[in-house]
Amino acid sequence: MTKKYYGGCDVGSTTGKAVILDENGNIVASVIVPSEIDPEETSVKALEAACAKVDDLASYKDLAYLVGTGYGRNEVAFANENISEISCHALGTFSCAPDVKTIVDIGGQDVKTISLNGDGSVLEFAMNDKCAAGTGRFFEAMSRIFRMDLDEFSSLSLKANKIIPVTAQCSVFAESEVISLLARRNPPEEIAAGIQTAVSKRCFTLLKRIGMQPLVTVTGGCAKSKGLIKALTKTIGMEVTPLPVDPQIIGALGAAVFARRR
Question: What is the pTM for the complete model shown?
Answer without folding.
Answer: 0.93
